[in-house]
UniProtKB/TrEMBL annotation, chain A:
InterPro entries, alphabetized: Beta_Casp, INTS11-like_MBL-fold, IntS11_C, MBL, Metallo-B-lactamas, RibonucZ/Hydroxyglut_hydro, RMMBL
Keyword Hydrolase (UniProt): yes
Compartment(s) where it occurs, according to its Swiss-Prot or TrEMBL record: Cytoplasm; Nucleus
Family: Belongs to the metallo-beta-lactamase superfamily. RNA-metabolizing metallo-beta-lactamase-like family. INTS11 subfamily.
Keywords tagged on the record: Cytoplasm, Hydrolase, Metal-binding, Nucleus, Zinc
Name of the protein this chain belongs to: Integrator complex subunit 11
Metallo-beta-lactamase domain: residues covered: 16-210
Keyword S-adenosyl-L-methionine: no
Ranges of residues in domain Beta-Casp: 245-363
Reported cofactor(s): Zn(2+)
Lineage, uppermost ranks: Eukaryota, Metazoa, Chordata, Craniata, Vertebrata
Principal localisation: cytoplasm
UniProtKB/TrEMBL annotation, chain B:
Chain coiled-coil ranges: none
UniProt protein name: WD repeat domain 73
Organism: Felis catus (Cat)
């Protein structure tokens, strides 16, 4: 029976700090290294002391895998690698590798410059951390070492997001990170083959939700923009460079065309440059299958959308502007915000999560008076809208993924176990409906291919045909016992003890003094240096592993005192 | 689909708010649990059906600052499994109990929704004495200190059973074999029934069976099947009972005189309805004299009864919800059919509607007649 151990260091008990430790086939892999966006102190980082108890992280962990660039999955990485200390490989996809450091640097700036945090990772640490990154392609089998291999699968969700299969020998685990099963305008749906892992680990925050359709979300966005523009207001949409911005632009362009609207739509130039760069990255990363599912177009060849100039912000009349950065913490989007905030006809649409300390976060919390540089107070009269465009798998999506991968077991990572009981039952019912005949069973055999003939025979048969001798694997273990008597007497004591305790097994005392339990052999010998100690040699075959281990633990507990 | 995009642009002026969800299975049930959640349930006959307790997206419940709530999704708060199909589900007010009915119609099932787990547990069953083959018992709840379940597939089998003791506390005691179409509890002592034939009655359970009733729609009525609903102000003056026929005829009646409809009109629907059992007529809790009907096709229609002349001629809806037709995802030959609908308890123009393609819509229509 494969033993796979999963220890969530964050996000297991608290949604928001994804970091999961997996031990499989003797290898230790850390999945994601996220931070909790709701805390300002050490609670925002996963608890690494759990691992470091065992010694140095680099010695203990075989690799680290990052699923995508969201801070709740990679935000603690520089802290982990440079401040706690890890020098091993960090695996992620190419787009993640390109985008991660930018978000980390942004986040660092906000934490240190805006909030004045002291013990935070530095820019240099981010750079040093990224030097340890090994980028992978989709569906590429990567050998981490002789035994451990990993493979990335497309996850949808955001650019570069991947689900990872981790394999050691015949045991495998699939970790989903965040994924999405419904395609949108610029990202395809997650996909995995029937890889049948022993365990599928899936984030299940949204497992108990039923998602509103993408069309209705888009409708809501259009309605808001339209309302603002109709009343002569200006709409500011702060965005991070890629993905969402392109999607919203396509949406607005289509709508403007259909409704024959005249109000200008602008995107800031900073956006174009970054966007083109990322767009190229995106194209080379995705495979054929995915390229087919999103809109093929030259990034900013829009009829109604033009490049923005700072001076336009003062133009009268309605307009829509896409500007960076996304959390209103600096740069052009903040500049424009300051100009437009005082007019209630205007609107700002925040398309994603904002880190604490940013203007975005403050207005989303309902704050309407903001203290800016130089103690100036800005009164926010413009309409604030929070729209969530990021896509997570809901109950239906999880069922689809489980259906695709066909795992033996499913691990739902969520804050509260009692809120997962229904989904657990649903998965069990849906996927164990098949009679036992179809359930995978372990078979020991040998496939003999001769000419164009295939035969599956027992191992003994194959060895005979090939004229090979069978190798026997035996394990041996030493157990030290305090016993000053002679070896033969110790052996006798062992025999009596085991005979009374292991009633279902065949325990025998052989003429040469050794004790057998089924095929397991126990011999007592004197300790070379200490006459008061006896050494029990316990040896068993590979087939009797379980009993052998059990027996060893039993003997380690010591023997009962002999009745005098 | 091109028309879906067009309809969505249209929808910007037709609706204030609009949400569209895909359930894993279609439902014929939409039962409110307080004003924050609804129950839905599957109705397939050959498999396990899910019963779900869904919480509405937060933005539909808050009164202010709606813009700051990005959550647009339903939350599955509780779920359970039923071996039989569920055609009706009632919540027992002020308790954590649900009662379901479906086929086979020999039992009603009682379920419990607990706080510390998300599983809806089966608690007990109530035997229905008369086994009826393809008929299933309608259910209504007398909620009081000792809740009672009113049920029956035919007039003769009508009973009230105490939920806890399972003792029968009321029995119609008649031999009438007329098939029931709906049952509705009006207060602690009264309930209303509507037979499939259109015969309506109000019953006081403190007395031996003596309903005030009508004999059914007169000669010339073309509908094969009827359903009815009693509106909120059934104690006040004016018509408060609406009955809907499978030919599209909608009658309004005063409970004091069930024999003579106060007003009637013919709805522009494709008659006869392909699934008369799914016919549904509801009164808007927040708008005077407004009704909604469904069950003829993939639409829900809203009517304002005050604008009728009442003489039985064609009437026009003030609003028609066509979302289920235009947003249908799978391009199957059969158009989706709206299986049920319900009004939001206090948002006046918000409705929920479910269709045979497992879609569930929450929509808030714009009253175009309202002076701006």
């Amino acid at each position: 029976m494969p033993e796979i151990r999963v220890t969530p260091l964050g996000a297991g008990q608290d949604v928001g700090r994804s970091c999961i430790l997996v031990s499989i086939g003797g290898k230790n892999v850390m999945l994601d290294c996220g931070m909790h966006m709701g805390f300002n102190d050490d609670r925002r980082f996963p608890d690494f002391s759990y691992i470091t108890r065992n010694g140095r992280l680099t010695d203990f962990l075989d690799c680290v895998i990052i699923s995508h660039f969201h801070l709740d999955h990679c935000g603690a990485l520089p802290y982990f690698s440079e401040m706690v200390g890890y020098d091993g490989p960090i695996y992620m996809t190419h787009p993640t590798q390109a985008i991660c450091p930018i978000l980390l640097e942004d986040y660092r700036k906000i934490a240190v410059d805006k909030k004045g945090e002291a013990n935070f990772f530095t820019s240099q640490m981010i750079k040093d951390c990224m030097k340890k990154v090994v980028a992978v392609h989709l569906h590429q089998t990567v050998q981490v070492d002789d035994e451990l291999e990993i493979k990335a699968y497309y996850a949808g969700h955001v650019l570069g997001a991947a689900m990872f299969q981790i394999k050691v020998g015949s045991e495998s685990v699939v970790y989903t990170g965040d994924y999405n099963m419904t395609p949108d305008r610029h990202l395809g749906a997650a996909w995995i083959d029937k890889c049948r892992p022993n365990l599928l680990i899936t984030e299940s925050t949204y497992a108990t939700t039923i998602r509103d359709s993408k069309r209705c979300r888009e409708r809501d966005f259009l309605k808001k923009v339209h309302e603002a523009v109709e009343r002569g207001g200006k709409v500011l949409i702060p965005v991070f460079a890629l993905g969402r911005a392109q999607e919203l632009c396509i949406l607005l362009e289509t709508f403007w065309e259909r409704m024959n609207l005249k109000a200008p739509i602008y995107f800031s130039t900073g956006l174009t440059e970054k966007a083109n760069h990322y767009y190229k990255l995106f194209i080379t990363w995705t495979n054929q299958k995915i390229r087919k599912t999103f809109v093929q177009r030259n990034m900013f060849e829009f009829k109604h959308i033009k490049a923005f100039d700072r001076a336009f912000a003062d133009n009268p009349g309605p307009m829509v502007v896409f500007a960076t950065p996304g959390m209103l913490h600096a740069g052009q989007s903040l500049q424009i915000f300051r100009k437009w905030a005082g007019n209630e006809k205007n609107m700002v649409i925040m398309p994603g999560y904002c880190v604490q300390g940013t203007v975005g976060h403050k207005i989303l919390s309902g704050q309407r008076k903001l203290e800016m540089e130089g103690r100036q107070v800005l009164e926010v009269k413009m309409q604030v809208e929070y729209m969530s465009f990021s896509a997570h798998a809901d109950a239906k999506g999880i069922m689809q993924l489980v259906g695709q991968a066909e795992p033996e077991s499913v691990l739902l990572v969520h804050g509260e176990a009692k809120k997962m009981e229904f989904l657990k039952q649903k998965i069990e019912q849906e996927f164990r409906l098949l009679p036992d005949a179809k359930k995978p069973r372990l078979l020991h055999g040998t496939l003999i291919m001769k000419d164009s003939n295939f035969r599956l025979v027992s191992s003994e048969q194959a060895l005979k045909e090939l004229g090979l001798a069978e190798h026997q694997l035996r394990f041996t273990c030493r157990v030290h016992l305090h016993d000053p008597r002679k070896e033969q007497e110790t052996a006798m004591r062992v025999y009596s003890h085991l005979k009374s305790v292991l009633k279902e097994h065949c325990v025998q005392h052989l003429p040469d003094g050794s004790v057998t339990v089924e095929s397991i052999l126990i011999q007592a010998a004197a300790h070379s240096e200490d006459p008061g100690t006896k050494v029990l040699l316990v040896s068993w075959t590979y087939q009797d592993e379980e009993l052998g281990s059990h027996l060893t633990s039993l003997l380690k507990k010591g023997l009962p005192q002999a009745a005098s | 689909m091109e028309s879906a995009e067009d309809w969505l642009v249209e929808s910007l002026r037709l609706y204030q708010d609009f949400h569209a969800f895909d359930l894993s299975e279609a439902t014929r049930v939409l039962e409110w649990i307080d004003d924050k959640g609804v129950c839905v349930a599957g109705y397939e006959s050959l498999k396990k059906n899910e019963i779900l307790h869904l919480l509405l997206p937060l933005r539909l419940s808050v009164k202010e600052n709606q813009g700051l709530f990005p959550e647009r999704d339903f939350k599955v708060r509780h779920g359970g499994f039923s071996d039989t199909s569920v055609f009706d589900l009632k919540h027992v007010l002020d308790t954590r109990l649900l009662v379901t009915s479906g086929l086979p119609g020999c039992h009603l099932h009682v379920w419990q929704v607990t706080e510390d787990s998300d599983v809806i547990q089966a608690v007990s069953t109530i035997a229905v004495q008369e086994e009826e083959g393809s008929l299933w018992p309608r259910v209504a709840i007398f909620s009081s200190m000792a809740p009672g379940v009113l049920h029956g597939a035919r007039l003769r089998g009508l009973k009230v059973v105490d939920l806890e003791t399972q003792k029968t506390t009321y029995s119609s005691g008649v031999g009438d074999s007329e098939e029931l179409s709906s049952l509705q509890v009006l207060d602690a002592d009264t309930f209303a029934f509507c037979c499939a034939s259109g015969r309506l009655g109000l019953v006081d359970i403190r007395q031996k069976w003596a309903p005030s009733e009508n004999a059914g729609p007169g000669p010339g009525a073309t509908a094969r099947r009827w359903c009815a609903e009693v509106g909120g102000r059934h104690r006040g003056p004016g018509p408060s009972i609406a009955s809907l026929g499978s030919d599209g005829q909608l009658c309004l009646l005063d409970p004091r005189d069930l024999c003579h409809p106060v007003s009637s009109g013919r709805c522009p629907v494709s008659a006869p309805s392909p699934a008369p059992e799914l016919l549904r007529v509801t009164w808007a809790p927040g708008l005077d004299d407004c009704l909604a009907i469904s069950g003829f096709d993939g639409t829900v229609q809203v009517y304002d009864a005050t604008s009728w002349d009442g003489t039985g001629g064609q009437v026009e809806p003030v609003f028609t919800h066509r979302g289920h037709i235009f947003l249908e995802d799978n391009q199957t030959d059969t158009a989706p059919l709206v299986t049920t609908h319900t009004w939001h308890p206090h948002k006046p123009r918000t409705l929920l509607s479910a269709a045979s393609d497992a879609s569930l819509h929450v929509w808030d229509w714009v009253d175009r007649r309202a002076a701006c």
